[in-house]
Amino acid sequence: MDYPKMDEYIMHRRLELKYPIGQEDENIGGSSSGNISNPTERTVMTIHSDKRLTQLEKTKDAIEKVLDTLDTNAYALVELRYWTKPQTRTWVGVAKEIGYSERQCYNVRDLIIENIGKELGMA
């Protein structure tokens, strides 16, 4: 997941849910459909119950919690290796820039991934 664009992904999903394309009328017979008739309430319920949106928000929150715990070098590692575009640094280049060994970089990366997994309930 491209963390720097998470807010954009969340906003885009909310807009998809709020303004669906080609919404069909499932109530062809004309009787009560059993669906919520208030458009605003229906939109709120759709947004609130959307699994994709919920997962995007949980992922963003988990990443932010873990990022908030990182020291300056570990945060720089994430920025240099994952957020810098175009990606031109190898792990060796990142290690040299932040003063870690390549092995330390891998260890920090693994710990970050493990902690994000824990926040998401995967570990």
Rg to the nearest angstrom?
21 Å
The helix/strand order is: HHHHHH
What is the residue-mean pLDDT, rounded to a whole number? Answer: 87
The fraction of residues in strands falls at under 5%
Report the uncertain regions. none
Structural class: mainly alpha
Q: Got a strand count?
A: 0
Helix content: 55-70%
The description of the largest β-sheet is: none
Which of globular, elongated, flat, extended, rod-shaped describes the shape? elongated
The first-to-last residue Cα distance is 18 Å
Number of helical stretches of at least 4 residues:
6
Can you give a write-up of this model?
With 123 residues, the protein is mostly helical. The chain is built from six helices and no strands. It has helices at residues 6-18, 39-49, 51-68, 72-83, 91-98, 102-119. α3 crosses α6, α4 packs antiparallel against α5 and α5 (91-98) packs across α6. It starts with 5 loop residues before the first helix and ends with a helix. The mean pLDDT is 87.
